[in-house]
Design goal:
Largest sheet: 5 strands, antiparallel
Radius of gyration: 24 Å
Shape: globular
Structural class: alpha+beta
Helix content: 10-25%
Length: 153
């Protein structure tokens, strides 16, 4: 009659579970995906208006670079058109104005997409750039400068 070890059978079941847990632990310690690095939200709290800007497609730009812009206040009327108040600039000296702002006009909590052409003179504005800066002026009389590190792409 063959003896069955009391420890061998449960250990055989435990080893795959242990390997799975170890794999999950290692995966959670990995570096964030490139899109998570460049599409990080930036917040500006100057004055009475909080402005939060999140790039939507810096990791995979098409013909348009889109930014989700959220503005919140309890004292300032947010009736401005961001296409006239915003500029996108790279550290290579390229500067471009927005092509569209689809946010509502007015209110105290405004959110929309601010869109910029991804090319200028037939060339990608991101080509060779390490930093991208969005400047928004005239929201509660402040100049808001939000910069993303493109080298993390």
């Amino acid at each position: 009659m063959e003896k069955i070890s009391v420890w061998r059978t449960p250990m055989k079941r435990f080893i795959p579970v242990l390997l799975l847990l170890a794999s999950l632990l290692l995966a959670s310690c990995a570096s964030p995906a490139p899109s998570a690095l460049v599409n990080v939200p930036k917040i500006d709290n100057q004055g009475a208006v909080t402005v939060t800007v999140t790039p939507l497609n810096l990791d995979k730009p098409g013909e348009i670079l889109d930014f989700d812009v959220s503005m919140s206040t309890h004292s300032v009327e947010l009736g401005m058109d961001l296409t006239t108040l915003s500029t996108l600039t790279t550290d290579t000296g390229v500067s471009i104005s927005p092509s569209q702002w689809d946010g509502p006009v007015g209110g105290h909590h405004v959110e929309g997409t601010l869109s910029f052409p991804a090319t200028k003179d037939g060339k990608s504005i991101l080509e060779g750039a390490k930093n991208l800066t969005l400047t928004i002026t005239g929201v509660d009389n402040a100049t808001r400068t939000l910069t993303w590190d493109l080298s993390a792409k």
